[in-house]
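User: Hello, beginner here. Can you help me understand these amino acid letters and fold codes? It all follows right here:
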Amino acid sequence: MQVVDAEGVELGYVSAEDDRFLAIAEGPAGKLMLSRRYVANASDRVVLRGASREMFTNLNVVDSLGEFVGIVRDTMEAVNILDGLIVEDEGGEMVTVLLEDIRAIDEWVDLELTAEDLYEKQGG
């Protein structure tokens, strides 16, 4: 089942689900666990409560070690597909986080990688 935000921006397809999360695979997400708190309805497709940009902005981001990385400031989209999040780190730098590098989105964003690995992917 396809997962889209309220503006029709695709996050991927549901591959599994439980009481708290939808596992989203295929599409831009490697395997993203998305909290059901963001779901408005699910019939022929899952529609989220709002635009990705509005729902995810200001969420804290932590790395795979549980260390604070920064705060979501914006989303990256290409042709109505969510590609990732733009995160402002503690130093005020903007860092790109691809959906494939996100483990879960609930009360905060959990990354699959360490902050060090994230910065290496940025080229520095």
In short: Residues 96 and 121 are 9 Å apart (CA to CA). The chain is about 10% helix and 50% strand.
